[in-house]
Amino acid sequence: MDQEYKQIKSRAYYIFWGTATLAVVIGQMAIAGGYRRLSETIDRASWRVVDSVDFNLQRLRRPRLAPLSPGPYQEPVYIEPPMAPMPEPW
Predict the structure, then answer these.
(1) CA angle, 18 as apex, 15 and 22 as ends, to 5°?
(2) pLDDT tens digits along 11-49
(3) How far apart are the first and last CA of the chain?
(4) Residue 57 and residue 55: Cα distance in Å, rounded?
(5) Distance from CA of residue 80 to its chain's centroid?
(6) Long-range contacts made by residues 2-9, C-beta under 8 angstroms, separation at least 24?
(7) Strand residues in the chain grouped as ranges (E)
(8) pTM for the whole structure
(9) Domain spans of the chain?
(10) Cα(51)–Cα(61) distance, rounded to whole angstroms?
């Protein structure tokens, strides 16, 4: 039984599609590298903003006066609350 090939692919076919595939893969890698650099730049910029805001908040929270020193320790005084009157039986 002789089989006829329905498609005969030449060497140029494989060279073309191999080159096209490599071009797509290399392009995707270049785009991924660009997105990575963009992400790092945004991270650096956002951390600069966060650090400057944090620095300014710390400066604003700085106590302006020396804190008052507490006096000597005193034992807490427990005062028992007065009891409510009992209801009268029926």
Answers:
(1) 135
(2) 899 999 999 999 999 999 999 999 999 999 998 888 888
(3) 115
(4) 5
(5) 53
(6) none
(7) none
(8) 0.44
(9) 30-61
(10) 15
